[in-house]
């Protein structure tokens, strides 16, 4: 195992859900933006935009939709946005039609740009001694969130991030052993759930700081349990949302 | 601007398309896998898988489909895969139905997991003094690529990466100024293409090593040009591919 400061931060990553009451300063913000800017981008199309949400009323609305008390509370709130609006505008203002911007292919390339930039910023955050938590919950109520963010056509808020000075020290969460997730050449179809017994045991030793008095369920119990059971939720508005935004219009 | 080794690598990122004839050693591989493993994951579902393609015949087929001579040539080839198959298997073997694994929501969470892991590995690569190039071209012919990779249901090869010891020193490619990509609170709809004149000028000073004898088009010329013009390509098989894989079945 090779060690350097980048890798040591990566392999010790914990999500931080409690931050000190302190905002990022201008230099920290500039640094994160510059890292965002220099992320690899598909076909040099630069289909990602970063929103920094500082308005208290907007933060409160986002927190309510995410239903997580730390969203838009202490620290700084960012929303990473797939953005084909800018390139549509370039084409329209130069007298061209929209071309391929409404295609699923372009949306997927925008997802690449945006999510790569997300993790790039995340790594910069930790390199500065700060912490973060991913906010997938910004899509718990996609249509309502779009109203709050007031985004133009051809954009999609893919993933949020709350950043700040850590005010907790969570335990390192045990991950699936590599034998189940990294393969050479061929994907093995002979997966046996019984092979996860040791890992299941390990996961139950993890105490989630969100409820520090109890251990969490084993991995296989979580996967076979309620969170993946069939149920209707607003997250199922995602295809409707993308079409409403003029994205993936070839996907009928 | 804050500087440390992580950030300095990030803001000096170049894609490397020519590598020395040298493979990653076991320690380098283990390190990249461990970084992959510790990436943040949506709802702790761990919906990502990493394939390392070492078989020469398979590398040649992938190179042909990507139509880029450096794919699967010198260095190491990785394919990052959205993977809901593993969790489907857990549910089925524990006597449960598939639940939500076929929903678009779950596919999007899988994209989050997979693309975050991609960039995490990319940053580890550069921290070790190695280089990489993103391979979006693994989806230039999605149905054919799926045959080559022989992946099970509920998986999707999202993005490839060629990694190795750099054998070129590309120029740093100028990116959109932050005023066009990072916003506070509100997304400005008043974009004016004429504001990109200086940036356009800057982009034309960049020499692409892929053809070192000529400068590249300005940014707005690239966006208003052929690559975004309407045309039919195999990349438009993506929705069909995802449905064939049992993904996004709620998206009709």
Describe the protein in words.
The structure is a homodimer of 252-residue chains. With 252 residues, chain A is an alpha+beta fold. Chain A folds into 2 domains: 5-170 and 239-244, NADH Oxidase; 178-227, no CATH class. Helices cover 36% and strands 13% of the residues of chain A. Chain A contains 9 helices and 5 strands. Chain A has helices at 5-11, 26-37, 56-66, 85-93, 104-127, 142-149, 197-203, 219-223, 238-244; strands spanning 48-53, 76-83, 131-135, 155-164, 182-184. Chain A has a 4-stranded antiparallel β-sheet. The longest helix of chain A is centred in the middle third of the chain and has 24 residues, at 104-127. Chains A and B meet through helix 1, helix 2, strand 1, helix 4 and helix 5 of A and helix 1, helix 2, strand 1, helix 4 and helix 5 of B. Strand 1 (48-53) of chain A pairs parallel with strand 5 (182-184) of chain B, so a sheet runs across the interface.
Overall number of structural domains of chain A? 2
Helix content of chain A: 25-40%
How much is the radius of gyration of chain A in Å? 20 Å
Count the helices of chain A. How many? 9
Topology of this structure?
Two copies of one chain form a homodimer.
Chain A: H1 5-11, H2 26-37, E1 48-53, H3 56-66, E2 76-83, H4 85-93, H5 104-127, E3 131-135, H6 142-149, E4 155-164, E5 182-184, H7 197-203, H8 219-223, H9 238-244
Antiparallel strand pairs in A: 1-2, 2-4, 3-4
């Amino acid at each position: 195992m090779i060690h350097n400061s980048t890798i040591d931060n990566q392999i010790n990553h914990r999500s931080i859900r409690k931050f000190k009451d302190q905002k990022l300063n201008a230099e920290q913000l500039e640094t994160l933006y510059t890292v965002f800017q220099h992320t690899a981008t598909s076909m040099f199309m630069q289909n990602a935009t970063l929103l920094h949400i500082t308005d208290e009323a907007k933060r409160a609305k986002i927190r309510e939709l995410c239903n997580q008390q730390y969203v838009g509370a202490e620290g700084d709130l960012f929303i990473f946005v797939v953005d084909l609006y800018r390139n549509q505008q370039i084409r329209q203002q130069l007298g061209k039609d929209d071309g391929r911007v409404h295609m699923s292919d372009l949306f997927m390339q925008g997802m690449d740009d945006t999510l790569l930039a997300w993790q790039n910023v995340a790594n910069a955050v930790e390199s500065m001694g700060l912490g973060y938590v991913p906010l997938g919950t910004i899509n718990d109520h996609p249509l309502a969130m779009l109203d709050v963010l007031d985004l133009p056509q051809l954009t999609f808020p893919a993933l949020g991030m709350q950043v700040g000075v850590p005010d907790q020290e969570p335990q390192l969460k045990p991950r699936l052993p590599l034998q189940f997730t990294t393969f050479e050449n061929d994907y093995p179809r002979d997966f046996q759930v019984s092979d996860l017994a040791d890992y299941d045991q390990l996961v139950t030793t993890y105490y989630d700081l969100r409820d520090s008095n109890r251990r969490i369920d084993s991995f296989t119990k979580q996967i076979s349990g309620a969170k993946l059971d069939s149920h209707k939720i607003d997250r199922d508005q995602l295809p409707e949302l993308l079409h409403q935004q003029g994205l993936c219009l070839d996907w009928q």
